[in-house]
Design brief:
alpha+beta, Beta-Lactamase, five-stranded antiparallel β-sheet, five-stranded mixed β-sheet
Length: about 525
């Protein structure tokens, strides 16, 4: 993948991510807005239901009072027949007009021309009502409004007591008469309201309050979010019917919890979508980088294979054609062919081992032997190349090392990878030291050079696959150094598979200004073969 393609892919990924985030934000906004609208609609529907119920209860009470008024209207329909008013009304009053206490008829001079009462023993109270009616109530009545025979009501508080009267006017022989039905408010509250506003476990609660908010009937409902009040349309219009849904507080709390839950779910969904998109973008970018690294790996491997093959072919052709000046040159060319073939073999082994490690199929053939011989063979294989490059290998193997169980080919491969790493990247080094010594219960192999060293922030990543330290990627001439980036990763894997480890050691020579790098790995001393 070219740099231009990679940049285009990165820009496209960022643009798509931005578009998705904006789309998620828009969806979250409208979802949040819809949730709030649905919540308002739910609240509105509950309140409308409560208003409807309150209206229904108020109108039901009004109808009952108006029905009684209509009975009284039929009784006093003819102002000429008022002498027997009490005889025509009292016998059926308890059944047909239970809340009407008295019926009065006033002429156009505001004089009482007819009077009938169900409470004959309460004469002082009724006399007081007649004076109140003439002196004050008639002033508050709307008597000039057309039509004059329309049924109207007056609900007012006088001297601390609530009064309800129904009134209408009639004209007889050019005289105007005022018909009045006095309703007993106390009886309405005690007898009529309980039958009309009876509560059940499945119905909302209802009460009646006066102008000052005092409860006349029912229980105190409070000022909950769903408590509504409606005035009586025509009769007790100074009072209100209050209705609250059953378990109103619980309903309000449930609605509030549901609103919070929906908001949290919307926000959580948006967060999950954003995180998912971000994760996909990160994984896509990681895959892109891995693909680029693998492409570079293939190119590097191809170049690494090409170089020794070209040398082998060149010197083999020279030997084949006989263009060799002396026997000494012939041996030198043969040594180069052997050395490059060994280098080629090691590279192919590296690639094959790496492929097996990647697939999880790598296995080791453990046998008891001497690790020193494996280290010596690895140094011998690279000796010609090291001397040709002016960095001879100096091997130092501790005497009397115990035998242990290990895979000889794998250990040789690990040592050769460390030597090859030193030959590639140890710019300015004049030799390479390979040591093997016992440290506690392990045998430790170290490959050290006195080159330019490595950056301080690189040692932790040097054993990662495909990673190549920036400080060691170019040789002194400025050209790039080819490599696969898997050698040290295989060294780490071989050491771990044997029960040891691999690491980079800091250079701590007493000589001032000493540089270089020291790579090491350990092999535990075992008396028995490790379990696979």
């Amino acid at each position: 993948m070219s740099n231009a393609s990679a940049r285009r892919s990165t820009r496209l990924t960022k643009a798509l991510l931005a578009i998705i985030i904006v789309a998620v934000a828009i969806v979250a906004y409208f979802t949040f807005r819809t949730t709030l609208q649905l919540e308002r609609l739910r609240d509105q529907s509950v309140r409308e239901a409560s208003f409807g119920l309150a209206h229904e209860k108020a109108e039901r009470l009004d109808r009952r009072i108006v029905e009684q008024d209509n009975v009284i209207i039929s009784v006093v329909a003819d102002p000429a027949q008022l002498e027997d008013l009490a005889a025509r009304w009292i016998p059926t009053a308890q059944r047909e007009t239970p809340t009407v206490r008295a019926v009065l008829v006033l002429d156009d001079q505001r004089q009482v021309v007819a009077f009938a009462s169900r409470a004959a023993s309460a004469w002082p109270e009724e006399e007081s009502f007649r004076r109140l009616l003439i002196e004050r109530m008639t002033r508050d009545m709307d008597l000039s409004k057309e039509p004059i025979d329309e049924l109207r009501h007056l609900h007012h508080t006088y001297r601390g007591q609530s009064y309800l009267v129904s009134y209408w006017q009639r004209i007889h022989e050019s005289r105007k008469y005022l018909m009045i039905a006095w309703h007993d408010v106390g009886r309405i509250v005690r007898e009529l309201m309980p039958t009309l506003f009876a509560e059940s476990t499945h119905q909302p609660r209802a009460s009646v309050v006066d102008e000052e908010g005092r409860v006349i009937f029912g229980r105190t409902l409070g000022n909950g979010a769903y408590t509504v009040g409606v005035r009586f349309p025509t009769t007790l219009y100074g009072w209100q019917v209050m209705v609250s849904p059953g378990k109103g507080e619980e309903l309000a709390a449930r609605v509030e919890n549901r609103r919070l839950l929906e908001i949290v779910m919307v926000l959580l969904s948006c967060v999950v979508i954003v995180l998912g998109v971000a994760a996909i973008s990160v994984f896509a970018e990681r895959e892109r980088r891995m693909s680029a690294v693998k492409s570079e790996f293939v190119a590097n491997v191809s170049h690494e294979l090409k170089t020794p093959l070209a040398l082998i072919r060149m010197f083999a052709e020279m030997l084949q054609t006989g263009r060799v000046a002396s026997e000494e040159k012939r041996r030198e060319y043969l040594d180069i062919v052997v050395s490059e073939s060994e280098r080629l073999t090691a590279l192919i082994e590296n690639v094959l081992d790496f492929a097996r490690v990647e697939k999880g199929r790598q296995s080791y053939d453990f046998a008891k032997g001497n690790v020193g011989s494996a280290v010596t063979n690895s140094c011998t294989l690279y000796r010609v190349r090291a001397e040709r490059e002016g960095r001879p290998i100096r091997a130092s193997i501790e005497a009397d090392l115990p035998d242990t169980w290990f895979d000889e080919r794998a250990i040789q491969l690990a040592v050769m990878n460390l030597i090859d790493n030193a030959l590639k990247y140890a710019h300015g080094a004049d030799h390479i030291d390979v040591t093997l010594a016992r440290e506690g219960t392990s045998l430790v192999v170290r490959v050290r050079d006195n080159g330019e060293g490595i950056d301080e922030d690189e040692p932790e990543r040097l054993f990662e696959r495909f990673f190549r330290g920036v400080s060691r990627l170019r040789n002194p001439s400025g050209g790039p150094i080819r490599g696969t980036g898997i050698g040290l990763a295989l060294v780490k894997h071989v050491a771990k598979s044997h029960g040891g480890d691999a690491w980079v050691e800091p250079i701590s020579d007493a000589d001032a200004g000493s540089k270089g790098a020291c790579f090491a790995f350990s092999v535990p001393i075992r008396n028995a073969a490790p379990e696979p």
